[in-house]
Specification:
With 148 residues, this protein is an alpha+beta fold. 36% of the residues lie in helices and 14% in strands.
Length: 148
C-alpha cells in the first residue's frame, strides 16, 4: 500500500508501486481531469502538479511520488474556478477539450513562476502540449488573459 496526498487529502492506494500515477488518479481516486494521451510523456494530456511543478503522470510511478499532487480538480472548484480556468472558459479555448487539462496545468505552473510572460514565453511554456483541434490561438489568449 502506498500513501499519496492528492488535492489536499491523503489517500492509501492499493495499486502496485510501479503503477503510473495517472492510473491511480483515474482508476482508484476517480479523478478524471488528467487524460491518457500517449502514455509516453510527450503530449501533456496527463499533466498534474507535484509540489507545484508540472509532471506527466503517465510516466511517474506512484511509488516515486513524494510530494503533494494537485490535479485540475484541485486547482479550482466549480463555485470558485482558478483564474486560468475562468480564462479558458471566457476565451472558449476548448474544442474537444481532451488537451485542456494539460494546457491548464502546464500554464498554471508556468504562470506561478512567471506571472508577466511575453507571448514568446507562453508559446515556449506550452510547446510540449499537443492539441489536435487547432484552438491554439484561443489557448494563448486564455493564458494571456489569466496573466493580466
Amino acid at each position: 500500500m502506498t500513501t499519496i496526498t492528492v488535492n489536499g487529502k491523503r489517500h492509501e492506494v492499493t495499486a502496485s508501486p510501479d503503477t503510473p500515477l495517472l492510473y491511480v488518479l483515474r482508476n482508484e481516486l476517480e479523478l478524471n481531469g488528467p487524460k491518457f494521451g500517449c502514455g509516453l510523456a510527450q503530449c501533456g494530456a496527463c499533466t498534474v502538479h507535484i509540489d507545484g511543478r508540472p509532471a506527466r503522470s503517465c510516466s511517474v510511478a506512484v511509488s516515486a511520488v513524494k510530494g503533494k499532487v494537485t490535479t485540475i480538480e484541485g486547482l479550482g472548484t466549480p463555485e470558485k474556478p482558478h483564474p486560468l480556468q475562468q480564462a479558458f472558459v471566457a476565451e472558449q479555448a476548448a474544442q474537444c477539450g481532451y488537451c485542456i487539462n494539460g494546457m491548464i496545468m502546464t500554464a498554471s505552473a508556468f504562470l506561478a513562476r512567471n506571472p508577466r510572460p511575453s507571448e514568446r514565453d507562453i508559446r515556449a511554456a506550452l510547446d510540449g502540449n499537443l492539441c489536435r483541434c487547432g484552438t491554439h490561438m484561443r489557448i494563448l489568449r486564455a493564458v494571456r488573459r489569466a496573466a493580466a
